[in-house]
Amino acid sequence: MRSSPPDMVTPSSAPVVQQFNRSIGLMSNFSLGFTYLSPLTAVYSLFALSMTLAGPPAIWWILIAAAGQMLVAMVFGEVASQYPITGGLYPWARLLWGKKYAWIAAWIYLWALVVTITSIAEYSATFVASLFSYTQTASHLLLTSVLLLLLMMAVNLSGTRNLARVARIGFWCEIISVIALGIYLLIFHRTQPVGILFNSMGAATGSAGFSHAFMTASLLGLFMFFGFEACGNVAEEVKDAGRKIPVAMILSIFFGAISAIISVLGYLLSYPNLKDIVSGKIQDPIPEILNNALGTEGEKIFVVIAIIAMLSCILSLQAALSRLIFSFSRDNMLPGSRWMARISKNEVPDNAMIVSCALPLLICLWVYYQPDNLARITAFAVAGIYISFQMVVLAALRKRVQGWKPAGPWSLGRWGFLNNLLALGYGLFGIYLLCVPASGDSFLDRWIVLTGLAVVAGCGLIYLLTARPYRKETDGQHYQNHSNGQ
Hints:
- By secondary structure, this protein is mostly helical.
- The chain has helices at residues 26-37, 39-54, 60-82, 89-96, 99-132, 138-157, 160-188, 209-216, 219-222, 230-233, 241-270, 274-278, 285-330, 337-340, 350-369, 374-401, 416-435, 443-467, 477-481.
- Helix 6 packs across helix 13.
- The two termini are 18 Å apart.
């Protein structure tokens, strides 16, 4: 990579960028996407909520969301195969539609990632507190979250190879803690019939009926099946990226769905007092299920494994966010772009990584003062990611209508247009579910997702129209250097 020539951007404002090293293979790229997707984190974080909302039938959202996001992943796969460029959604949207459109899509995605990292860190902190048996006060959880974020930043700053190593460790922890444990529970501790998967067990009582209750539990699946795009966020660090990134994305969703289904089935069919979980009598059900099946020591072992997997998820999220910020900054699209577009001797965008840790730390402080809003900001994060995803899907569909045919080494061929259309339909349905007003006493409680989206999009538009960052970009040579089929 090289900075822009003097006649386009002044030397003082042009980001100084260097070349990434291609050290990530297919397994590491898949592990990165899988640990970011992290079925364990989604299940552990939202199992209790989904059971109280819709009961055991909530499990079907795992399959629904996996099928829908597989359509999206195949759209991304075609785009990433032709444009294997660091930053993922931002360069894809830019090349498919334009600079302004890409800026807004990536801006929404950026803040959704920030809030997602915060959410995972906060959920992880509760497991750390449980492991070390200290009180889960707001200050204790804040301190734990801060330490976890700083620890993962240190690992990320140490180099891409260490990122790949920890991602692989996290992958195996996910496999052990979701698939192996789920199979063990199903074989040796099953107490419930399969029929309970169609029984809401009283969770859907009320005037709204089961359909409404089932829709409200959609967050279990919607929260789980994103993260596969991280495989493309590090494209310039992947060997044979045009072929391997699409495969890694698809594998992330496929194995994520299998592991999540086995895990949730194990929890549901092994616990004898399932009604106590659905009624909310047991507020933290997974430790109770593990303790019932494995005893205290067995529960501790699997909590340790779960924490490692969650830390790997934070690590992957930070890596994805830092590459997005780097990609933005390489095009001189953000304040401080010159500083954030630097790559360290460890071949990491270290300054962008520092920002990727600092922003979630600020959101952690907000959660400290407003702890009841953690579930709501999680919904905001997922909605933001779904919107930015669908902006890329829409851009790809528009480009196809104009005659574009994906020219990378991985393509769906004549099925691409239909897949693209179905992916857009699924995404709009998911956005609708995420933006439906929540229950609450105040306006902000009910509309926090749309309010958050309006604030983020509004601030982005104001900056876009006033600062006009799209006029300050570099020569864009990296788009030619890393595009296939041009």
